[in-house]
Specification:
The protein has 369 residues and is mainly alpha-helical. It has a single domain, classed as Glycosyltransferase (Alpha/alpha barrel), CATH 1.50.10. A hairpin with a 2-residue loop joins β3 and β4. Helices cover 56% and strands 2% of the residues. Pfam families: Glyco_hydro_88.
């Protein structure tokens, strides 16, 4: 009887939380997005204090992820200043990708250049991204599909890579009407799935070193790592024509979505280790933002049932906005890493802001006036 009462109480508390976590109106979503975007632009150079030189570039993956969300916000914003910011950054980068010829992280910024090309139709915006991807396709890496302590990074041997590079290839296939980009991407993507995807859990290991590792008996599925994959799937699916490739990505996306809604905490965030929330009680906003974005995108685009997924989306957004500081900083973003770790209310990262702005762009479409 006591167990029944405890269970009933937990269910009632969860239902109360769900009832409270309703979407704000569109104007509030716009306000929250603008506060976070403006704070990030004002503090744009702060991340340049990193010790690692490879992260201290405005065309690094960290910034590339920011630009994806910032460009989504720029489309919504009542002023052109956000596109002006992005154009200025791209010009500072000389429209270059990162230095690693094959490295997926160094292709992520290409997504910004492609979207700016789509808006402004200036050939120089696309030229270097096209050159890089053509070179990779014509000189395929012979490295094995394994990371081996970062010995092999020319192929997509870690799950984060599935956000950074594949959308570039899918977008280029549409822009150039060249299916070779799409086919090359698909083959490499499937190879990564076969290597890192757990078909029982419908989640991705971050890389090979986590496949057999356990944390107090729990499989280790890093929240942001799976967020990279899930968010990246939406960017790919938007570009694909009907056919076997789209069916493959659709099934992967839906299977992940079904797993993710079962793993959300009662507080609305996703734990840094998805299957071990009790071990990582600290909120974390980058993974949560990517999941909230990806699920909202799925409802908006007819991939997911609204009645099933909306409560999860609402709780996710409420959790995210509760961690915006009074001056507009998005807190509790886990620092650069490769697995579950720590996060703090007064610490942020540019990629977390990019994920938040992406989530807001889809929440805006869901919200009522």
């Amino acid at each position: 009887m006591k167990l029944f009462i405890c269970t009933l109480t937990a269910v009632i508390l969860q239902l109360v939380f769900v009832a409270q976590a309703k979407l704000p109106d569109k104007s509030q979503i716009m306000t929250d997005m603008q506060r976070v975007a403006d704070w990030q632009i004002e503090h744009f150079h702060d991340d340049m204090e990193r010790e690692n030189e490879w992260e201290n570039r405005f065309n690094a993956w960290t910034y590339g992820a920011l630009y994806i969300g910032m460009e989504k916000w720029a489309k919504m914003a009542p002023t052109n200043k956000y596109y002006e910011f992005l154009l200025d950054v791209a010009a500072q980068n000389n429209w270059d990708l990162g230095p690693g010829k094959y490295h997926a992280d160094d292709q992520a910024v290409g997504q910004l250049y492609i979207e700016l090309y789509r808006k402004y139709k200036k050939p120089h915006m696309l030229a270097k991204t096209l050159d890089r991807t053509n070179w990779i396709m014509n000189n395929p890496s012979t490295q094995p599909m394994r990371l081996n302590h970062y010995k092999y990074t020319e192929r997509w041997t870690w799950c984060d890579a599935l956000f950074m590079a594949p959308p570039v290839w899918a977008k280029l296939a549409n822009i150039t009407n060249n299916d070779d980009f799409r086919d090359w991407m698909f083959a490499e993507y499937v190879a990564t799935v076969n290597h890192l995807y757990d078909k029982q859990e419908n989640l991705f290991y971050r890389d090979e070193h986590f496949i057999h590792e356990r944390d107090n008996g729990h499989k280790i599925f890093w929240s942001r790592g799976n967020g990279w994959v899930f968010g990246g799937l939406t960017l790919i699916l938007e570009e694909l024509p009907q056919g076997p490739q789209k069916a493959y990505f659709t099934r992967l996306y839906k299977d992940m979505a079904a797993s993710l809604i079962a793993l959300q905490t009662q507080e609305g965030h996703w734990a840094m280790s998805l299957k071990a929330a009790a071990l990582y009680p600290t909120p974390e906003t980058s993974g949560t933002a990517f999941f909230t974005y990806g699920l909202a995108w799925g409802v908006n685009n007819g991939y997911l049932d609204k009645n099933t997924y909306l409560p999860t989306i609402e709780r996710g957004w409420q959790s995210l906005t509760s961690h915006i500081t009074s001056d507009g900083m998005l807190g509790y973003v886990q620092p650069v890493g490769a697995g579950p770790g720590d996060a703090w209310p007064d610490k942020t990262e540019v990629y977390g802001v990019g994920a938040f702005l992406s989530a807001g762009s889809e929440l805006y479409k869901l919200a009522q006036d």
